[in-house]
Amino acid sequence: MIPYNGVMTSRLLILIPLFWLFAGCSASTTSGGGAGNTLMGGWQSCAGERPKVCTMIYDPVCGRRADNTLDDYASPCNACADENVMAWHPETCKE
């Protein structure tokens, strides 16, 4: 049995809200970073609210900007965080 000294309770009070905060961030960013409908050719639209924070998981995608240019991004979340990106594809851009 671990003796109670009051320190453990204060640490838990800090860690539990942090856990839920990060769990919520992770859940919202792993779903494609604001992915919307699937378009022709496997493109996913960046619909809805743009993500403000993305995880550091490297899952490279190709993003299509409003001016129809393509660029590689580290993840779907990073692609949709760019306000100019309208859609992303689950592979890197091929030239």
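[next item in queue]
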Amino acid sequence: MSRVIDQAITVVSAEHCKGCSLCVISCPQECLGLLTSFNSRGYHPAHYRGEGCTGCGMCFYACPEPAAITVYKKGAEYPD
């Protein structure tokens, strides 16, 4: 099941993220940060702070890890 979202969001897979912070640096809206906790591989993964995303995709293109970041633009279907 999915729903149509009314604002853009960024979803970061904590297990795929290596905490390089390239997405954090590249985000013009400054809506990403690094967690203080570790993932199972010992990295501080990036996370979406919950607001401010415009869906520009800069974080997605800056990320060197396939499948670590997914950007959902406003009006997209988001899987629940």
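[queue empty]
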